[in-house]
Amino acid sequence: MALNNTYDARLVQQETAVGAGLQILLLALIGTAIGMGPAGWVTGLVFAIATWAVLSRALHRAGSRTFGPANRVTLGRATLVGGVTALVADSFQDSPPVSLFVGLTAVALILDGVDGKVARRTGTSTPLGARFDMEVDAFLILVLSVYVSMVMGPWVLLIGAMRYVFVAAARVWPWLTAPLPPSTARKTVAALQGVLLLVAASAFLPHVVNFGVVALALGLLVWSFGRDVLWLYRTHRATQAAPAAAGRRARRELVTS
User: 136-179 pLDDT, tens per residue?
Assistant: First the structure.
């Protein structure tokens, strides 16, 4: 049995290594096509190595014996996000071809709806897979907000940074880590962020329209996060108040008896 576990673990690590290899291959193809500069290469390689290292460690800690079909789809999305990240880093020197940038980003956004369906249909949903999917989504939004901020201004960075600010705040206020109830509105707002940022990044529309699109994305995100934080706060207060109320009732019963 130990041999089987070791073999399975090696297979999982091999799949993450293949993902890193595909990332490097994509960078080579992009670099050959557009003559990508050092900033793009370095950023893309750092992304590939970091993704491989973090994912390998997470899989090891979770004791995963198989990588799973849904995680393969998410890893493919991560590879595309790495390509987009390299293009954005390179854009500080030269603007990337719009068709390439939009194409990679659009495919990554479309696949966002695939990995979850694959996980449910194959019965391979795991907390690690959900977290992997969430982190890839969040990083893509951050990268897109950086790209759009170069035209619209630094305020756009609030879109990409909001989720990371929430995570940092949860270290100070642990009640923010409580599970949230399912919400179609939350999922819709999250999905719209990438689409709206991509619309603005493509520059197909007039500047004033793109400004309104990005402002709409930020407004929806503030509303969604605000609603969730308020729900978590109220739930936390109610949880704290319940024992105190029970104690007061117990004391009143003792007095009356």
Answer: 999 999 999 999 999 999 999 999 999 999 999 999 999 999 99
C-alpha span between 197 and 141 (Å, rounded):
8
End-to-end, the C-alpha distance of the chain in Å comes to 63
Structure tokens at 69: 């079909």
Sign of CA dihedral 53, 58, 64, 69: negative
pLDDT score, position 63: 77
Q: Which of 20, 40, 39 is nearest to 30 (CA)?
A: 40
Cα separations in angstroms, 18 against 12, 78, 130, 211: 10, 12, 21, 40
CA distance 35 to 93: 12
> How many Å apart are CA 23 and CA 115, to the nearest integer?
19
Average pLDDT of the residues in 47-64: 85
CA angle, 51 then 55 then 56, to 5°: 115
Residue 132 CA to its chain's centroid (Å): 8
DSSP 170-218: HHH-GGGGSPPPP-HHHHHHHHHHHHHHHHHHHT-S-HHHHHHHHHHHH
Per-residue pLDDT at 120: 82
Cα separation, 154 vs 164, in Å, equals 16
Residue 30 in contact with residue 36, Cβ under 8 Å? yes
Mean pLDDT, rounded, for 19-28: 90
Q: In angstroms, rounded to a whole number, what is the distance separating the alpha carbons of residues 25 and 20? A: 9
- Both tokens of 138, joined, read 């969040």
Element (H, E) at 164: helix 157-172
**Spatial CB neighbours of 213, under 8 Å, sequence gap ≥ 6:** 196, 199, 200, 205
Tokens of 178: 């409580």
